TrEMBL record, chains A, B:
This is DUF917 domain-containing protein. Transmembrane segments: none annotated. Residues 166-358 form the S-Me-THD-like C-terminal domain. Residues 7-162 form the S-Me-THD N-terminal domain.
Length: 362, 362
């Protein structure tokens, strides 16, 4: 598998869907990856299971408020420096890169990074979706250390963090990111091939591409949302899926604070029922409620898409009056275990309602 | 020169005077140094001029709000780890340690560190006083890099910072320190012997000891403040000195905010004149005004001492109703050059009045 212009477009659209509102503007991410491929050639995409047990795999990502990520795109040198600083710290160069999450800019950025570094990119990630905090990744759930971790800003200031826990790394790096202007490049969770094989969410680059392609194909026949749901139902991870709401945005609150985009979006049903859906987000959409009753909840996916084109809408693109559909979908089983829910279930975000799988809501 | 129990007491008292209100509780610092000397032996104190040009000298210090430093004293392991992490980053062990400032806890801490590490301690520092921010040191004024810089907290979380300027390092480390609980151990400004010989403020360990001893001797004859001024006048650095005010504290505002102790102290003259002195501080005392007119200003020293015993009073020990004298004194010439005033003159602290040497005030 190699990315070209067409598959990159599909991939970025699919990754925006899996980003569930977070992860930054997929358009910018796609352009950056496209440019890097044009300049350095497309990186090889390899299966997680092809990795040697003792290979060194490094995730690379931007961290910060998506509203700011969109304005402070990666320049390239910052990516190279983050990988270089972490490699120096580990005393070893990486054998491959991997996305930490398959959502928004952090899914396309590793393509750019792999192209620049001439390294293969693993067809997998640490979430099968996107999440706002460093500890919210399968690698942490299953015991891989988040640190040493390299942070780099656009002025090439750099920081290496070693923390006793991924949670502590998150609080330190968040403070550093705010001090560096709300958006930074990080490389963290240095992984062995063995760890990637055991704990990554596999094949998500392919899956995101398939999601984007299904939407594009559906547009040709005038039914992109049906095509999207049809594709999701064929996947192992996202097969429990449905349209949760069909409405227009009537209220929107979005603050860039504590290093995140935090707020909620309220929609009114288009059929005149008067019913309202609220979606709360911290970068990513966390919980959807219809007239106060939960109908989908983190870590399951809650995606707001344009009701005509099924274009996934990142949080920062939501607008008053927009006509949207809200889609709910299951996440990979590895993201729903009790250990996983401890790290990124509703309680981790201060939500009182317990996790209920999307397929169990009436 | 070696420190023993008696000279440590004198030294800590003198360093509290030179700390001009900041630098943390000298009592705790002295106990820590005393304990380390009892356990590991007193470190050798060496002259700056005895250093080889290519020797590696590392400063070690606590950074944070003095109000918090006093509660989160160094545990020892954090000191060792800060030096270890910076040494690893530099690929080389230090040949000696040096205090970054000669004020409060950061003057006694390097004694503890040197004793633990079995390294000599240089009889010099980077200020000849104390200052609240990382860039406010002669080494930065004269072009030595503040980074790489190691930060360690009491849980042994560690961070290595590389920044494009000392000012940028300050803003990053301050954010990290706040995230780590307002008080951290740092090692920074890795220096060559040549740099120490050119840019350090020399003999300040001896001078601080002399100041403390003069106060102690003066107490025996009932005139500690006269003894203190008498000694200062014999020194090269602090010889322009005088009592600026004799009053009691009638107003005190002290906030632990942005990683500092910030506020002001207002005193009313004891002779019934009705005149008031205000002293503004950011950890250290910055400017003294009598009825609104400046009479001493940073980087010159402004020290509040007990009016009977001449005991130097750190900012966090000031109390309503306390009888005090305020003493002003010059700083070393290296700290008063135009380059130096750019970095830690009044403007660096947002004070509008220009620097005027203490000896030029009527």
């Amino acid at each position: 598998m190699k990315f070209d212009k067409k598959s990159l477009e599909d991939f970025a659209r699919g990754a925006a869907f899996l980003g569930t509102g977070g992860g930054g503007d997929p358009y910018i991410g796609r352009l950056l990856a496209q440019q890097a491929i044009a300049e350095y050639g497309a990186p090889e995409i390899i299966d997680a299971d092809s990795l040697d047990d003792d290979a060194l795999i490094l995730p690379i990502a931007m961290l910060g408020a998506p509203t700011v990520l969109a304005e402070k795109a990666a320049c390239g040198d910052d990516i190279d420096l983050a990988l270089k600083r972490l490699s120096e710290e580990l005393g070893r160069k990486p054998d491959a890169l991997i996305p930490i999450e398959i959502g928004g800019i952090n899914s396309t950025l590793p393509i750019m990074a792999a192209a620049r570094a001439g390294l293969p990119l693993v067809n997998a990630d640490g979430m099968g979706r996107a999440f706002p905090e460093i500890q919210m990744v399968s690698f942490n759930v299953y015991g891989c250390s988040a640190t040493p971790l390299a942070v780099v800003d656009e002025h090439m200031n750099s920081v290496i963090v070693r923390a006793s826990s991924a949670q502590k790394a998150e609080s330190l790096v968040r403070a550093i990111a705010v001090s560096m202007g709300m958006s930074v490049m990080i490389s963290c969770y240095p992984l062995s091939g063995k760890q990637v094989k055991a704990y990554a969410v596999k094949n998500t680059l392919s899956l995101a591409t398939g999601i984007g392609q299904a939407i594009a194909d559906g547009r040709k026949t005038g039914s992109p949302i049906e095509a999207l749901l049809g594709f999701l139902k064929t996947t192992e991870y996202y097969r429990h899926c449905k349209v949760l709401f069909d409405g227009k945005i009537t209220d929107l609150r979005r603050e860039t604070t504590r290093g995140f985009s935090i707020g909620h979006c309220i929609m009114t049903e288009l059929n005149g029922s008067g019913r309202e859906m609220s979606v709360e987000f911290q970068n990513e959409n966390l919980v959807a409620r219809i007239d106060g009753t939960v109908c989908a909840i983190v870590p399951d996916l809650i995606c707001i898409v344009d009701r005509e084109t099924a274009e996934p809408l990142p949080t920062e693109a939501l607008k008053y009056g927009q006509r949207v559909k809200v889609i709910g979908a299951s996440v990979p089983p590895i993201m729903r275990t009790p250990e996983a829910l401890n790290v990124f279930g509703p309680q981790a975000f201060g939500i009182n309602e317990p996790f209920t799988p999307i397929e169990e809501f009436k």
